[in-house]
Structure formats: structure tokens, C-alpha cells
Design goal:
The protein has 96 residues and is an alpha+beta fold. It is 46% helix and 16% strand. The chain has helices at 34-55, 74-95, and strands spanning 6-12, 18-25. A two-stranded antiparallel ribbon has the order 1-2. α1 crosses α2.
């Protein structure tokens, strides 16, 4: 489950029974400068990929819709923008 401030990872068996759950928080992502923010996102995406490799599982990302009909506050807008433009693309590259 991808959110603008955390990623929730679930490990399930072939029947869909929950085996484990892990939450990776992005913390104060909005307070970092661009270069440090990208490095921090890269570090967190590495944690996601390593978790999945250690569990021997693949990654399935939900079908995310980024159509925004209204404006959030500045910090949340920045987090959503980073998620759209950096995190998902970086995760895809790391998985390949």
C-alpha cells in the first residue's frame, strides 16, 4: 500500500493468509532539500526491495490514481508530488 508518508508491505501465503506486515515510513520527507530527498527516497526503496527479496516475494503495486480535484497544504502537496515523480519510478527501476 503506497501512501504519501509511508509504504505498508504485507507478506501473504498462496491462500491470502497474512504472514507478516511491515510499515516503512517516509518521515519528514518534505523538510529535505531535493538531492537529500531523492537519496532518502532511494534508501527507502532499497528497504522495500530488500524486504521482498528476503521474503522471496514479488512486489505488487496498487493501481494509483493521482487526479487531484482540490489542493492540500503545501507539505502534503510536496509529498504527493515526490511520490508520483520519484518514488514509484525509482522503485520500478530498482526492481528491474
Amino acid at each position: 500500500d503506497f501512501n504519501y508518508d509511508f509504504v505498508a508491505l504485507t507478506n501473504v501465503d498462496q491462500h491470502g493468509t497474512l504472514l507478516s506486515y511491515h510499515k516503512i515510513s517516509f518521515g519528514n520527507l518534505h523538510s529535505y532539500r531535493t538531492d537529500k530527498r531523492n537519496d532518502y527516497i532511494s534508501y527507502k526503496m532499497d528497504k522495500i526491495v530488500n524486504y521482498c527479496l528476503n521474503k522471496g516475494k514479488g512486489i505488487v503495486v496498487e493501481d494509483l490514481q493521482f487526479d487531484q480535484e482540490f489542493s492540500y497544504n503545501t507539505k502534503r502537496n510536496r509529498k504527493l508530488s515526490n511520490l508520483k515523480t520519484t518514488a514509484l519510478q525509482l522503485l520500478e527501476r530498482k526492481c528491474q
